[in-house]
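Lab manual, section 2.4: Encoding a predicted structure.

Procedure: take the sequence of the chain (155 residues), apply the prediction step described in section 2.3, and record the output as structure tokens. A sample record is shown.
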Amino acid sequence: MADAIEKVSIIVSKGSLEGVYPALIMANGARMEGIEADLFFTFFGMDGIIKKRMNNLKVATVGNPGMHMPTVIGALPGMSAFATKMMSKKMDELDIPPVGEFIEMIHDAGGELYACKASVDMFGLTMEDFCPQVEDIISVGQFYERSVNAKIIFT
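Recorded output:
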């Protein structure tokens, strides 16, 4: 029998609706199973923890192979808004909480959220730009230190 997973470190690099939710679902599931969970938001994934953006994420329709449509159709005006509305409606039906509420749930369950220092510096952000559940802004090296004995998941 395989050893049980005790800790996961999840890297969130995409800021679209379909880029952030998998990480939140996995982190929440880990906490529900008693597994430690850290989330490391980097590059555009930080949109998931930036106060002004986190509850307004959109579905990426251009160049998204999961949309099963030609890029030119995904680029049509209104396609992203339409896809976002449809996905949000389906998530509401399934009782999946909005990003801000989901992050609060994960944090309250003991999950820890971090912003990538290199990305924060590159985009000129500060701790004040992030939701209050973000523990700190850390370097990649600090992320790896926190991830000792963890399963690293890249979403």
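Check your result against the sample. The chain has a mean pLDDT of 91.
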